[in-house]
Amino acid sequence: MNRKGDKPLVVGLDIGTSKVTALVGEYAPGEPVEVIGIGSHESRGMRRGVVVDIDTTVESIQRAVEEAELMAGCEITSAYVSISGSHIQCRNSQGVAPVREGEVTQADLDRVLDAAKAVAIPSDQRILHAVPREYVLDNSQEGIRNPVGMTGVRLEVHAHLVTCTQSAAQNITKCVQRCGLQVDELILSALASSTAVLTADERELGVLLVDMGAGTTDIEVFVGGAVAHSASLPIAGDKVTEDIAHMLRTPTPYAEEIKVKYACALAQLARAEESIQVESVGDRPPRRMPRHSLAQAVQARYEEIFELVQAELRRSGFEQRVRAGMVLTGGAAKMEGVVELAEEILQMPVRIGIPQYVGGLGEVVGNPVHATGVGLLLMGARMESPKKRATLPTAKVGGVLGKALKWFRGEF
């Protein structure tokens, strides 16, 4: 494989409910991340973002990682891993610390963020992220983005804390480690997706990001350039498939196929005379049914999901401050008519978010399915940059020949 010198690599592992995707990117300071490898395998060991079968999940991760290694021509040793599910909770917290040297340094920022993290959380939970929203220096200046270098005595931070249950985090980590990989960092799926699909203007104006996967619909609200609310709803694309399977009395794999091929989220888009063929259960012959009634069932479920999203936005208290509207991403956002339906229910402009800020494989860059994976690469590259690369290689080049030989022998 033709490689561009010795650029450091970063790996994103998106462990979803319907599939596991591994992305390999290479990056250099000041350049966009280049996606050079992708591996994907269906996932059966997850339900609504949580591990329910370790062995099956381990196998899915292994297959996805091997495929990505083969394509990128490298050996993956660690990855930035996604986590979501309805166990995710958030709160906004404040911390105060004195400025030690009279001038704010990075150490002061770390200290004041630690102070914001010192809140009482249940013993079965842990803090996943503490994101600074804004700083206040000596009560005088509101909303400072980066106070490093400023003079002052008292530094205050307004931070957004995201928590998850210990067990959910440990089970995902265990699955990744069983594949012989290290977890560089667990990252909230929706936070990763937002990094890949939102523009700076949208964050500034206030935007609602909705990442609709198979098992969960993840929500992030950005206000004034920073994240202000996070949530994960346990209802998404799989529920639509279940509805179709139930209504048509057809096995789930066929229902998924029908959803992808024929479904739309707005009944008026399906013409009355259109019909589709439906496979039956057992040895019964296939039947035909109008596409319009399929669209009605799908629309009803999408309406329910968007109403839950709206309720969550109201609960956050930031509804009036979301001026840039909603950005919809994830696999379930690819359905025809979904933007029009969302605009109708939420009464705000809606667009489909596709991964930006990366180069490389076209199948990844233009596809909302890969929003989380690309976000993991971007956040990973940002976190790696200050580190000394020599101490912790994220993925080391080599072992390609061995992999190829194994593949030819059918051991893959």
UniProtKB/TrEMBL annotation:
Residue ranges the record marks as coiled coil: none
Signal peptide (residue range): none
Transmembrane segments: none
Domain of life, source organism: Bacteria
UniProt topology in membrane: Peripheral membrane protein
A Gene Ontology BP annotation from the UniProt entry: FtsZ-dependent cytokinesis
Domain SHS2 stretches: 10-197
Subcellular location as annotated: Cell membrane
Keyword set, alphabetical order: Cell cycle, Cell division, Cell membrane, Membrane
One Gene Ontology term, aspect cellular component: cytoplasmic side of plasma membrane
SUPFAM superfamilies membership: Actin-like ATPase domain
Entry similarity comment: Belongs to the FtsA/MreB family.
Function: Cell division protein that is involved in the assembly of the Z ring. May serve as a membrane anchor for the Z ring.
Subunit structure: Self-interacts. Interacts with FtsZ.
PANTHER family, A to Z: CELL DIVISION PROTEIN FTSA (PTHR32432:SF4), CELL DIVISION PROTEIN FTSA-RELATED (PTHR32432)
Protein name in UniProt: Cell division protein FtsA
